[in-house]
Design goal:
Elements lengths: L16 E3 L5 E2 L1 H10 L6 H10 L1 E2 L9 E5 L6 H16 L3 E6 L2 H16 L2 H4 L2 E3 L8 E4 L4 E6 L13 E4 L7 H7 L10 E6 L7 H11 L5 E5 L11 H7 L9 H10 L2 H9 L4 H5 L4 H6 L12 E6 L5 E9 L5 E10 L4 H13 L2 E5 L4 H6 L11 E2 L10
Parallel strand pairs: 4-10, 4-11, 5-8, 5-9, 9-10, 12-15
Antiparallel strand pairs: 1-11, 2-3, 6-7, 7-8, 12-13, 13-14, 14-16
């Protein structure tokens, strides 16, 4: 007796959220065809993303200067970027492309895949002058001088060396707000720049990515946006929810892989990494901004026994020093004393505060999101407005 094979479950090719600015003509299908000629074959959803992201407006400029792509891991996001960068290098003649990831290993892996693809195609490889492989200097340099550079955002100062005609910011869930603030203005001098933000679902620390997500879901002008994932509260064991969130399922991602990872990851981890579900605090925010702002009291006097806290971003790119004390009525009051890049300045600043006579105790951590929590957007290095406690925890945003 022959057993019938279980039908293959294919991922949904249409995103949960999508927004595409109108365009006159698209170069996306040309990019898909060029990639196929090079041996890189894209799934239907990948082809759609390129087609809708590479639309041209009247006048020959991109209809969408900004692209947001959110899709769970292992679905083939990297193949889209490989096809995009190949087309820019060898067809459009883009002078400078920068591909950036949060971690060096991720950026290097993308470099190695693309270099291998080019070396396997003599018609492409003959245009390559060099492909440096030394750590931190990986690049593909063509004989005409055009370059594709690979950078990790943890190397060098925030925003340095990211001015490009095409800027790809992979792992955008780990993109610091301050790095984004430094990068985007550098693109203004380019004639027709485009920046891609690619990521899986974020965490409460993904403030920069969450702004892009909100703009995409609100269908902001001049932003092409594509997001695959489930809403919170769904049944994480329902295989149809897996298919809705993973467009590569059945193409390059197997159901067995997801089932294996379900047994290894926490429920929250599986929901975030494979179902595209954001952590609740990331979507709602810890505090309602209007309530938080109403508690400002810039004229408050320092308390007698303050407590200082030091926090750094996970990649040590930014650090913060905060202070808290009790008001005369017993309610807590907090203030951001300093917020600057890197960590080298922290010890001296803490000692300065200690020597100032403020005294107090200290705590430290490495999960900083201090700008959103206590800053209110004041300038770098300045003391922030004081916040007084209300005697209750502000309600999360609805």
């Amino acid at each position: 007796m022959t057993a019938l094979a279980e039908p293959v479950l294919f991922g949904k090719q249409e995103p949960r959220f999508a927004s595409v600015p109108p365009y006159r003509v698209s170069l996306g299908d040309d990019a898909v065809a060029f990639a196929a000629n090079a041996g890189l074959y894209l799934d239907p959803w990948q082809q759609m993303v390129l087609r809708e992201s590479m639309g041209m407006a009247p006048g020959g400029k991109w209809s969408a200067p900004q692209i947001g792509l959110l899709v769970p891991r292992q679905n083939g996001k990297g193949a889209i970027l490989e096809a995009l960068e190949l087309f820019h290098m060898f067809v459009l003649g883009t002078p400078l492309i920068v591909h950036s990831a949060h971690k060096f290993d991720t950026s290097q892996e993308h470099f190695l895949r693309l270099r291998t693809l080019i070396e396997g195609n003599p018609d492409l490889d003959r245009h390559v002058k060099s492909a440096p492989t030394s750590t931190g200097h990986e690049a593909i340099i063509l004989r005409n001088g055009n370059r594709l550079k690979f950078k990790a955002r943890t190397v060098g100062g925030a925003g340095r060396g990211f001015s490009a005609d095409l800027l790809v910011l992979d792992e955008a869930m780990l993109l610091p707000e301050q790095a984004l603030d430094a990068m985007l203005p550098t693109l203004g001098a380019r004639k027709n720049p485009q920046v891609w933000f690619t990521s899986s679902a974020g965490t409460p620390d993904s403030a920069a990515l969450w702004r892009i997500v909100k703009r995409g879901r609100e269908k902001a002008a001049r932003l092409a946006y594509f997001e695959w994932g489930n809403e919170s509260g769904i049944d994480v064991l329902d295989r149809q929810n897996w298919a809705d969130a993973n467009p590569g399922l059945g193409y390059r991602l197997s159901l067995q892989t997801l089932e294996d990872n379900l047994g290894l990851l926490s429920e929250d981890g599986f929901a975030r990494e494979h179902l595209g579900i954001w952590d609740d605090a990331a979507e709602t925010g810890i505090f309602d901004q209007s309530v938080w702002s109403s508690l400002a009291d810039p004229g408050a006097e320092r308390g007698a026994e303050p407590v200082f806290a030091v926090a750094t971003a996970p990649d040590r790119s930014w650090s913060a020093v905060a202070v808290a004390w009790r008001r005369p009525d017993g309610s807590p009051q907090v203030m951001l004393a300093d917020y600057k890049p890197m960590t080298g300045w922290v010890a001296a600043r803490v000692e300065e505060l200690r020597q100032s006579g403020a005294g107090g105790h200290g705590v430290a951590g490495s999960r900083a999101r201090c700008r959103g929590a206590v800053g209110g957007g004041a300038g770098e290095g300045a003391e922030r407005p004081v916040r007084r406690g209300s005697g209750r925890r502000p309600a999360p945003r609805q």
